[in-house]
Structure formats: structure tokens, C-alpha cells
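Z., the sequence and structure:
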Amino acid sequence: MVLEETLLFCEEIDADIFIRFLHEKNCRAQKKHESSIFEETDMSGTVGNLIRLIETKMESEVQEKQKDIAGQEGSTSDPGISGYPARRKLTFAESNAKMLAHLKSIRDYVGGIMTQFKPGDIVFTEEDLKKMDDLIHSCFDDDSGDDQEKIFIEKMMIRSALMNLEDNGVVETRPEGICLIKKIDPNDLIVERGPWGQDEVDRETLKQYGIALKLHIDFDTAARVIIDPRIHFTCTLKEVTEVLDELEVDEFSDEELRHNLSLKGLAIESVLGAIKTAGRISLTDLIRNMKEVTPDMIDDEHQIVEHFTPEFVTGIISDLRKMGVIEGNDRKMRVAR
């Protein structure tokens, strides 16, 4: 069905909530389970080695920043990159700078813990952890300025450092808080970070710096909701958006549904408009009329031109007929009264 939609949910409970919303709107929906596989490659190495690698890369990348980024091909002798356009090199440089700043912040924070505390000390109380988590969540709701962003970045860095310390067996979570188990050189802390890209990483160079690529594969299940075409008539885009904003939905699936509700709604208006204008029309003539359609002007400068294939028109007519929106056979159809 052309007007049937689907939506992929990470959690079944969220799929059930959305199905209840659709049922309240008199729109049928059903749920099915399907496999979900997620792959992610990370660079795994010590903080010190990652910092040395990035600093080596940036020595040459900083010079490349000033070059023309209008698509000229270039080459660089820095580790991990060769023969990429200037625009992509600039992206690498910006990404490297952010990663370097983050890694140095973690190293400095861990260094502070090693200086101030001894094994057995509580470096972060349970109360302090809760306060920090509340502050992080408040930053999501308040993006009013640079100060909030700085606070968010700082607290997320601390959270990241504590997780890395626990993964390394340096601290452990106890009822009273985060306890220091042993001391280490901050440069020896092992962390994982996303690489610049599968084709942009020189594995031999990474090996020289003691950095390994680690592929994580997560096997899971997800809940897909099959949505009746009636959603285009019973729900507004705003209503659907308000519900989905509160749920965990696959990002690409969410974007596709919102896109479809908007543009297919436009297609429905154009098809029904063509039928209303004709009064009664055959499917053959409708297909001919819908080859190129220009709806009303958005403004004096912007215009929409729609192109309908015969298959799409046939499909949308089938869906509209099943819903009782149009009546009659393919030789003579009209909008239902």
C-alpha cells in the first residue's frame, strides 16, 4: 500500500504507547518484531598514545586549514590520511581539535584524582553523582546559552572519565560512592574513541602508537509498527510529532515517517483535487493529468512541481478507495460524498 507507513521502535513499550495513540485516533496499527544489528568501530588505546597521535596529525593539518576548500584535491603526510579533498581535511582538523581537548581534559581530571586521593578514598559521593546527573539532565532542557553548554561539556567529561576509570579497574562503584582502588599514570588510562572513518585510518600508523581498532556488534530485537493509511486523515503531523518526541524511536525511521506524512499529505490533496475538478474521471485520465502537477504557489518565489508515476497514482487510488474516500470503478470514479 502506497499510504501505509511503518515506524521502528527501540523499545517495545514505546511501540505500545504509539499504537494506543493511533487507536485513539481511529487508526489501525499492528506490531511485529524484527532483528536489529548495530555495528560500531572504536579506537582503543591509552590516553597518552591517542594524544600523541592526534598532536602529530594536527601539526600538518593546521597548515592545511588555510588552503582553498573549494573541492581541490590535496595530499598530506600526516599519519592516517592521504589524498583527501581540502574540505575533508578541514573536517578532520576540527574533529581532531575537539577530541584532543576532550582527552586532555580526561587526563588532567584523572591526574587530579591521583594527586588528591589514595586507594580506599571516596572520590565522588553518591550524593555528588546524583547532583551531577541532575545538572546534566537540566542542560538538555535548557540550551539558553554558552554557559550551559560549558557546564554540560565539563560534567559529561567527568562522567566519561569516571566510566573509563571503572572500566580500567581503577575505581569501583560502592553504596557510598566512587571508590579509588589503585593509582595509575593518567597517560596509561585505556579509552575507546570513534575513529575518523574506516577508509581514513592508517592501521599501520595506529599500530605504531599502540592503538587497536575494536569492532562492537550489538545483536538485539526491535519493534516495528505497521500503520494503516488512515493515519494521513486521522492524525496531524503536529500530533504525531508531539507523541514521538517523548518516545525512543529509530532516528532514520522517525525522520522518514515525518517526511512521508508531510509530502504524502500533499500528494493526497493533489489527487483528490484533480478528481474533484473533473467531477468524475477514469483512472487512465487521472494518470495522464497527474504526470506533472503544480499546486498553489507557496509565495511569489517558491513553487512546487509534483511528478506522479502511473504506479503511484494506481496505488494511492487503491488505498483511498479502501478507506471510502473515493468511490466508483476505474472507468468512472469520484470523491465520496
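Strands lie at 5-9, 29-46, 122-125, 171-174, 177-180, 190-193, 212-227, 326-329, 332-335. The longest strand covers residues 29-46.

Let me know what you think.
H.
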